[in-house]
Amino acid sequence: MMTEKMMIRSFGNEPPLLADGRRAPDRREVSLRWLSGTFLTGITSSVLMGVALFAALDGRQQLAIPAEAYATINADTHADDTDVTRGGRLIASAIAAKPSDRKIMEVSTVVHEGDKEVVRRQPFARVKMTLAANHVATEDYPSFNPLTIFAADEPDAQPAVRTGQIYGSDVESEVSLKTVAYPTTKSDLQVAAGLTLDEIEENVRSNGSVLTDGAAQVAALYYVDPRRFSNDDNDVDLATGLTARVLEQNMTVSAPESITPQTEEFADDIIPVRQDTSITKAMADSGYPEPQAKGVSGYLSPLIGSDELSKGDVLRIGILQRGEQAKIIRVSVYRGTRHLVTVALDDHDRFVAGREPPQIDAVTTAFDDNSTSVPSNQNLPRVYDGIYRAALSYGMTKDMTALIIKLLASSVDFQAELRPTDTLEAFFSVADSSGQATEDSELLYVNARFGDTQTTFYRFQDPEDGSIDYFDQDGKSIRQFLLRNPVPNGIFKSGFGMRRHPILGFARMHTGVDWAAPRGTAIIAVGNGTVEKAGWDSGGYGNQTIVRHANGYESSYNHQSAIAKGVVPGAKVRQGQVIGWVGTTGESTGPHLHYEMIVNGTKVDPLRVRLPGGKSLKGGALAKFEDERQRIDALLGNQPPPQVASK
To answer: Which domain of life is it from (predicted)?
Structure first.
């Protein structure tokens, strides 16, 4: 057992050892020395941090004066925006827009006015918008609301569009055309007498010289013997200048190959390097998959001695496109305009060192000051905000932008963050050369690219019923036939199938899906159709509306608090139209919409059933749409280049 005396002995009770005759330290003296050292250390640290901060601010004495901070904030930022998220930037980085992507064109269009067709020149604007650029909206735009997107009212289709159709040929002034039926029985016009043989011979003598163009014969005279008119020395010899076509040896003249979606097309992608970075990051920031970028870097790095690119370098990537598949077949690196190295695919699909490809202007103008610089890895706005800001800054109206939003709603997530490569191209009529759209302006063409998804559609008026809609390149409507959710603001609560009934208490087939939402939330029609029933249902559905659509489809909306005015049996409804409001009438435990879809009399799962596409043009309407689409593509330069045979 350890006693107190043994413990004292173990710790030791000898006085401290002193050297050089020093005395034992005074406790107060030690405290003063520690306080002095701590104070001096604090002063030194403060001075060093101040010097470092002063150097980082380039000599300025403030982080940012209010005027500087306000100048960097987008003009459309509202003062009442108080939502701040962790990691968000208080002041967004500025990205310059590219003003050269706006072009005003004078286009000849034909408009039907009564029994006449009027051809006149009208100004049109073609804009190519990089949505991630720092666009400043010229006016306020509505905040994001999915219900507003689908339920936005559109003007009723007019018998004739205001802008008209692309005429296809230029006219100097306004021209009126009137088409009348060819008289098959009798005509008020007098018929001239037929030509005599002497008159025919005189026409051949006078017009024979224009039947040839150099060495090419532009008309045939199978019914005339050319030697008949060449007896006199003063007569025209029709055989003069006609020569046979001489072909080079081993040369074959073949018909042009038709262009299909699977036709191979080559393109050069130019990536300017604006700051020191790696090959992998430069390609990844431009939209290439990271594994593909790493593979290219692995081939280039040994040839240039590093996997890093310097500021001012240009990366030139040759791509072979076939349908939806893109394949890199060549990569070149330029230091400024001087070629450094090129690798290309060989016959075994392996990258090997290659010769410098033919020079193109895109390499020398890669750092054009007018180009849009979109840095990566920064907080970009939502897709919805990016479309509105860009469209309004390029002269489009809010109604036209809302129409684009509605047409893209089925394929684009508007709440997602923009990517640097997201673009939107539009072609629309304007008032004058200023490029500003008005209420009478009409949207003719849109080409939107969001990530890997590209959506293209054209405006067309169906000659059969006069309706105006937007169709893809194959003549299929861009709109969905039926939406799957009639309550865009609702929350999914219960699916289709067997379940325990919340009121009856036993297992029962749930023949629809439930969308929960506060009482009074708007319900929209999932598609165009005719109201078949609108009123009270005694079977437990409460206020019920049934809409009959095309091809045997029906949609049923139940437990509504009220049915919209005008929604009565026999009434026509449009997709997105508000037809009622969420409630809890009938056998219901809370405010929600019980939505059912019926196909040929059978109730099916609205979330799983395969829905048909929208309206598709056929026959003569499809042929006229093809003509209109080709005219628009020709104006915008979207036609594929013709292929020319070579030896």
So the answer is: Bacteria
Was domain 491-604 assigned CATH 2.70.70.10? yes
Where are the domain boundaries for CATH 2.70.70.10 in the chain? 491-604
Average pLDDT over the chain, rounded to an integer: 75
CA 89 to CA 76: how far, in whole Å?
Answer: 16
Helices (H), 124-268: 146-151, 197-207
Check: CB of residue 544 under 8 Å from CB of residue 529.
no
Q: Is the pLDDT of residue 597 over 80?
A: yes
**Cβ atoms 209, 236 nearer than 8 A:** yes
Q: How confident is the model at residue 601 (pLDDT cuts 50, 70, 90)?
A: confident
Number of H helices, E strands in the chain: 11, 29
Residue closest to 152 by CA, chosen among 528, 483, 524? 524
Token pair in block for residue 120: 């006149």
634: pLDDT confidence band, cut at 50, 70 and 90? confident
Closest of 92, 47, 106 to residue 381, by C-alpha: 92
Q: CB 263: neighbour CB atoms within 10 A?
A: 13
Point out which residues pair with 120 in neighbouring strands.
Answer: 109
CA-closest candidate to residue 342, choices 351, 329, 350, 353: 353
Q: How far is the C-alpha of 608 from the C-alpha of 528, rounded, in Å?
A: 20
pLDDT 10s digits, 189-208: 777 778 888 887 777 767 66
Q: Which two tokens stand for residue 462?
A: 């169906």
DSSP bridge partners of 433: none
Instruction: Tokens for 626, please give them.
Output: 């093809």
211 Rama class: left (phi>0) / alpha (psi -120 to 50) / beta: alpha
Contact 403, 441 (CB under 8 A): no
